[in-house]
Amino acid sequence: MSALPQPTISLVSPNLKSLPTPKTLLKTLSSSPSLTHLKQIHAQILRSNHSHSHTLILKLLLFSPSLPYSLSIFSHLPHPLPSLSTRFVRHLSRSSRPEFALFVYLRLRNEGIKIDRFTFPPLLKAVARVEGLAEGKEIHGFGFKLGLDSDPFVQTGLVGMYLACGRVLEARLVFDKMSYRDIVAWSIMIDGYCLSGLFDDALELFEEMKRANIESALMTMYASCGCMEMAQKLFNQMAPKNLVVSTAMVSGYSRHRRIEDARLIFDQMVEKDLVCWSAMISGYAESDQPQEALRLFNELQSLGMRPDQVTMLSVISACAHLGVLEKAKWIHVYADKNGFGGALPINNALIDMYAKCGSLERARGVFEKMTRRNVISWTSMINAFAIHGDANNALSFFHKMKEAHVEPNGVTFVGVLYACSHAGLVDEGQRIFASMINEHKIAPKHEHYGCMVDLFGRANLLREALEIVETMPLAPNVVIWGSLMAACQIHGETELGEFAAKRLLELEPDHDGALVLLSNIYAKEKKWQDVGELRHLMKERGISKEKGCSRIELNNEVHEFLMADRNHKQADKIYEKLDEVISQLKLVGYFPNTRSVLVDLEEEEKREVVLWHSEKLALCYGLINGGKDSCIRIVKNLRVCEDCHTFMKLVSKLYGREIVVRDRTRFHHYKDGLCSCKDYW
Ligand code: ZN
Ligand code: ZN
Question: Which ligand approaches the C-alpha of residue 671 most closely?
Answer without folding.
Answer: 2
